[in-house]
């Protein structure tokens, strides 16, 4: 399922660089351009030209612990007698001579960087036009003291053309999404320019107006499918070339990093296809979260976590004939409903929530054996058993539940051959307010057992996924065990 509204919210709220930061970037860039223009840096005819993600409109919001960065070319005429390193070293000295920029300035192989701590970084790369009378642009490599031909203007225009072909600004949106995936998952390495180039190469002239690019999730699926196909027939690291120069952007990879990138694109392609093809809306959002993390569909998950009482009321009205409609005009929440009508007040759809983590392991088609959960109530973890608890029973706060995965015979699971991954999910206002909706997987505390503290009023549930140790395959899964905390 496409979940177009959720994708739009995700891009706006989480992925895209917010307008205030873009405005700050524009102001800072203008100030830097004015400073360089008025400084005693010797090169003349300065053209201040944004490049990279900023110019390509694929810049994304940084992770909370990092600043965002932007690239600018300082395009100038050549200075007689200057080598490549002179342009960078002298520009660095110019900034170091300023009280305003002294502590912000750093120099690297191709640029001078102004570092605005915990906010932003701006890389300024000297770029020399028409050296020796040849019509070309060259950036400077301070480490090798060499000039390197580059065509940033042509490259930017090429990317704009690709975005026009894809329609709906989808090339830029997909590029931002993939860069976010790289940064949030940290499972693969790829420079932004290499990643952007690889994605751009997946768009062809006959794609204009194609249904394959009808919207953001369709474009994402199409481009990942094509990229994966391109990578799978190239087991050895290929060149990733600019269409306008001899630059090879694949230098960002070692052979092992390329192999890992190839494997991860293949994995994410499968996950994207699965989420796209899923017809159940909540399950589809959950599967998209497997790709993009917990911030995808966050608002949707929170709203559904708060609406459990309304779902229970609707469930009783529609499915429980013995409950008169007039009896449902009660004042209370889902816990009060369960206390009044028992476990039948819990809707069967409760365990289908969009913030549930999806398994990342392979599962057999049919369960090799059945597994169910039993639970016992304790005053403290490891303390004496107070009583046995069944699914749907109401239990008090500030106590502990011990869950055990058992076979149909009642025997505990053989933990030498199998391990249990537990998916523990909370609902309701209290858990939401504490940021404890959970829904992710946790391991056993010991053997096939899992302890859980009873902290938040509401209806919660626990599921057991049985994994065979020798090959990591899921061979069984329990039904949800509902815990009602008053």
Give a written overview of the molecule.
This protein has helices at 4-15, 19-38, 52-56, 84-96, 152-166, 170-185, 192-200, 216-232, 255-277, 281-292, 298-306, 308-319, 334-341, 429-433, and strands at residues 47-51, 68-76, 105-107, 112-116, 120-129, 137-141, 146-150, 371-378, 385-389, 394-395, 400-407, 418-425, 438-442, 449-453, 458-468, 473-477, 481-485. It is of the alpha+beta class and 486 residues long. It folds into three domains: 4-150, Beta Polymerase, domain 2 (2-Layer Sandwich); 164-282, no CATH class; 297-486, Immunoglobulin-like (Sandwich), CATH 2.60.40. Strand 5 (120-129) and strand 6 form a beta hairpin. The longest helix is centred in the middle third of the chain and has 23 residues, at 255-277. The relative contact order is 0.08.
Number of domains: 3
Record field, number of beta strands: 17
- CATH-scheme architecture of the largest domain: Sandwich
Helix tally? 14
Helix content: 25-40%
Tell me the CATH topology of the largest domain.
Immunoglobulin-like
Q: Report the end-to-end length measured between terminal Cα atoms.
A: 36 Å
What is the overall shape? elongated
Please outline the major beta sheet. Answer: 7 strands, mixed
Alpha-carbon Rg, integer:
29 Å
Q: Could you tell me the mean pLDDT?
A: 94
